[in-house]
Amino acid sequence: MNATPGTANQRWTVTCQDAGDGSGDLIVRLPAELKSDMGLAVGDTLSIIKVWIQPVDATDWLNRSAGVS
After folding, report:
1. Looking at the domain assignment, is residue 59 inside a domain?
2. Torsional sign, CA 50, 56, 62, 66
3. What's the predicted TM-score (pTM) here?
4. Radius of gyration of the chain (CA)
5. Distance CA 66, CA 63 (A)
6. Is residue 22 part of a domain?
């Protein structure tokens, strides 16, 4: 759930997509409202400083960690 715009603590949920080019890179599509609030435009460069990843399906995550397909 996204917080009210302009509040101190906002949370945005996005889905990472494989770039599909074998690089291991991810594509993260940011919501239009977030881009607008941050003043972002096409061509801007962003850096990921800290990521908290929580799997949606813990069983799937455990299988991937163990190398199970």
Report:
1. yes
2. negative
3. 0.48
4. 15
5. 5
6. yes
**What residues make up the domain containing 55?**
16-65
Beta bridge partners of 27: 17
Report the C-alpha gap between 36 and 16 in whole angstroms: 20
Please give the structure tokens belonging to residue 21.
């080019």
- Separation between Cα atoms, residue 12 and residue 35, nearest integer Å: 11
Examine residue 11 and state whether it is found in any structural domain, yes or no.
no
| CB neighbour class for 67 (10 Å; exposed up to 12, middle 13-18, buried from 19) | exposed
Q: What is the pLDDT of residues 18-58, one digit of tens each?
A: 999 999 888 888 888 888 888 998 888 888 777 666 666 66
Asked whether residue 2 is assigned to any structural domain, the reply reads: no
Q: Are 27 and 19 in contact (CB under 8 A)?
A: yes
Domains of the chain: total: 1
Query: What residues are paired with 16 via a beta bridge?
Result: 28
